[in-house]
Amino acid sequence: MHLLNEKSVTARVLDRVLLPVEKISKQVVFDCRMCGQCILHETGLTCPMRCPKNERNGPCGGVHPNGNCEVFPDKPCVWVQGIERAQRLPLWREHIGELHPPVDWRLKDTSSWINLFTGRDQIHPKGWDAGNGNK
Amino acid sequence: MQAMETSDRPLRAGSRLERVLRAGLFAVTAELNPPDSSDPQQVYDAALVLSEVADAINATDASGANTHMSSLGLCAVLLRAGYEVVMQMSCRDRNRIALQGDLLGASALGVKNVLCLTGDDVTAGDQPEAKRVFDFDSMHLLRTARIMRDQGMLLSGRKLTVPPRVFLGAAENPFAPPIRWRAQRLAKKVEAGADFIQTQYIFDVNVFREFMAHARDLGLPKRVYILAGVGPLRSPKAAEFMRAHVPGVVIPDSIIERLKKTPREHWQEEGMNICVEIIQQVREIEGVAGVHVMAYRQEHVVAEIIHRAGLFPRISPATVEAQKKSAYAPLAR
Question: What is the pLDDT of residue B296?
Answer without folding.
Answer: 81
